[in-house]
């Protein structure tokens, strides 16, 4: 009809028009926008020390989490979602790099930094036109060299100074590490408890907690810091979304809540919701529900501004529940700092209404290192831009309901512990001793099957684990980008199998 309307009778003219039409429909480098829609907004939410069994959708009968339960119904519920480590900082490094933290020198909490040589999600997404922001906990380096702050920040400490501004972020509202989950800048003068406390009453004496919020320019934030910490964080996220919308940019927001890392403190509203529980549980459950409300607030706001359909939201925890608090693993073995399931199997859900139109659950093992390659795949970012070796895989085919099993195993390391998991089996090593578990049939790791006619499987998985660790060591030793950061931080390699 196009040709008839304009009376293009010449064969050469028809050929040219047809060729131009084909070029317009099938560009050689098809971006997410070119596929017929705008690039999706991306939000990565993480709780701090939340156990696998601490959400309603995973069976908790005490803690109220309607927003997360709704996400689990509407999106993808990951029954085997793993944090890349059993403690905080390493898992966070994996989220932003797609790499196991043993490659990057973030071996443990308060150890190493997010090295400047690493290629990060905010850097990749800035190149794609995204506005990038980080809100809440950072824990990948210090935020000031001018005063004492949190765990590692101190006057003159430049070697660990490593704020979000150095890694592709446009905006930030961050702390180096933990804060109380209510009135985050304060602690009671006379009744401090590292696990938590009942919220400060009007007129009660308090002192500074000692961990501060900083903005993207390295300024200490002093306003709107009273009340629930999750609400304080979300109060910064929503204006960031507004700014991106006003600029007609897609946005990438990392929202790392402090909840429910100790000290757990719940405000009066959420304390009242759990008044029949003991004080420790009132504070723990209360701050989790307060966080859940802010996730619900975020989703409601996205719907209000018309951004809900094409926004993917991922939620998980950085590791299992802390020892000494009421957090639940729902029966999985051990807790934070352990590589048994209770230390690394964490709540995991995602929603993206435009892509995942009907909720489903999956038993395929997935890990925080999968975020970066998945997002690269969604946006059709050339693999060559991730210049360092990735440990994660793209989950895009899983989101489309087409993945049947994981093609590559997952390795974990911490201290003198290491594991390697595939779709069914898990090899566990601690202090040089090996164990083998059938995670599908024995998810609670009650029956070590290493000596039950599994010699060949044990040999195979032992080789896979050793190869994985050797690969991490090669990265650490400078095969990818040299040793400047290693030498600056005076880091040493520690073999988890010895």
CATH classification class of the largest domain: Alpha Beta
- Structural class by helix and strand composition: alpha/beta
User: What general form does the structure show?
Assistant: globular
| Total DSSP helices | 14
Distance between the termini: 74 Å
Strand content: 15-25%
Strand order of the largest sheet: 8-5-4-9-1-10-11-2-12
Instruction: Indicate the CATH architecture of the largest domain.
Output: 3-Layer(aba) Sandwich
Sheet with the most strands?
A: 9 strands, mixed
Q: Identify low-pLDDT runs.
A: 1-36
Number of strands: 17
What is the fold named in CATH at topology level of the largest domain?
Alkaline Phosphatase, subunit A
What can you see in these coordinates?
The chain is of the alpha/beta class and 498 residues long. It folds into 3 domains: 1-30, no CATH class; 41-399, Alkaline Phosphatase, subunit A (3-Layer(aba) Sandwich); 410-489, Arylsulfatase, C-terminal domain. Helix content is 29%, strand content 15%. It is built from 14 helices and 17 strands. The chain has helices at 2-5, 11-25, 66-74, 88-97, 101-104, 121-127, 229-246, 268-273, 279-304, 341-344, 371-378, 396-399, 455-476, 484-489, and strands spanning 41-47, 76-78, 81-82, 131-137, 171-175, 186-188, 206-208, 214-215, 251-256, 311-317, 348-351, 360-362, 366-367, 410-414, 417-421, 425-430, 433-438. It has a 9-stranded mixed sheet with strand order 8-5-4-9-1-10-11-2-12, sandwiched between helices. It has a 4-stranded antiparallel sheet with strand order 14-15-16-17, with helices on one face. Strand 15 and strand 16 (425-430) form a beta hairpin. Helix 7 (229-246) runs parallel beside helix 9 (279-304). The longest helix has 26 residues, at 279-304. The radius of gyration is 24 Å and the shape is globular.
């Amino acid at each position: 009809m196009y040709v008839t309307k304009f009376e293009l009778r010449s064969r050469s003219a028809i050929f040219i028009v047809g060729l131009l039409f084909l070029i317009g429909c099938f560009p050689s480098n098809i971006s997410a926008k070119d596929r017929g829609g705008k690039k999706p907004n991306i939000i990565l939410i993480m709780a701090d020390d939340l156990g696998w069994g601490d959400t309603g959708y995973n069976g908790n009968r005490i803690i109220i989490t309607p927003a997360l339960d709704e996400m689990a119904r509407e999106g993808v519920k990951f029954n085997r979602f793993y944090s890349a480590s059993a403690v905080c900082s390493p898992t966070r490094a994996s989220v932003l790099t797609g790499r196991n933290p043993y490659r990057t020198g973030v071996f443990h909490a308060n150890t190493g930094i997010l090295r400047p040589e690493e290629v990060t999600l905010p850097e990749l997404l800035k190149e794609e036109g995204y506005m990038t922001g980080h809100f809440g906990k950072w824990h990948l380096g210090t935020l000031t060299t001018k005063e004492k702050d949190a765990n590692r920040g101190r006057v003159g400490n430049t070697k660990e100074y490593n704020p979000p501004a150095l890694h592709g972020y446009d905006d930030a509202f961050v702390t180096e590490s933990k804060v109380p989950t209510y009135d985050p800048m304060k602690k009671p003068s006379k009744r401090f408890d590292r696990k938590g406390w009942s919220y400060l009453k009007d007129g009660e004496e308090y002192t500074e907690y000692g961990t501060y919020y900083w903005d993207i320019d390295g300024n200490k934030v002093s306003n709107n810091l009273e009340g629930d910490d999750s609400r304080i964080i979300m109060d910064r996220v929503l204006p960031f979304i507004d700014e991106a919308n006003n600029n007609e940019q897609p946005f990438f927001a990392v929202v790392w809540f402090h909840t429910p890392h100790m000290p757990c403190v719940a405000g009066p509203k959420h304390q009242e919701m759990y008044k029949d529980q003991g004080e420790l549980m009132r504070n723990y459950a209360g701050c989790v529900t307060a966080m859940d409300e802010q996730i619900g607030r975020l989703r409601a706001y996205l719907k209000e501004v018309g951004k809900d359909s094409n926004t993917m939201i991922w939620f998980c925890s950085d590791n299992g529940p802390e020892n000494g608090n009421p957090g639940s693993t729902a029966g999985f073995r051990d807790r934070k700092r352990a590589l048994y399931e209770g230390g690394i199997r964490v709540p995991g859900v995602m929603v993206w209404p435009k892509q995942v139109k009907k909720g489903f659950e999956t038993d395929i093992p997935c890990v925080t290192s999968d975020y970066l390659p998945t997002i690269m795949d969604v946006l059709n970012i050339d693999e060559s831009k991730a210049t360092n070796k990735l440990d994660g895989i793209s989950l895009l085919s899983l989101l489309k309901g087409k993945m049947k099993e994981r093609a590559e195993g997952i390795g974990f390391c911490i201290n003198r512990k290491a594991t390697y998991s595939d779709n069914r089996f898990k090899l566990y090593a601690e202090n040089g001793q090996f164990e083998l578990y059938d995670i599908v049939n024995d998810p609670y790791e009650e029956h070590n099957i290493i000596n039950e006619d599994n010699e060949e499987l044990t040999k195979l998985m032992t080789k896979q684990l050793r190869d994985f660790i050797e690969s991490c060591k090669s990265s650490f030793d400078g095969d990818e980008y040299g040793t400047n950061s290693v030498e600056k931080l005076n880091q040493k390699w520690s073999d988890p199998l010895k």
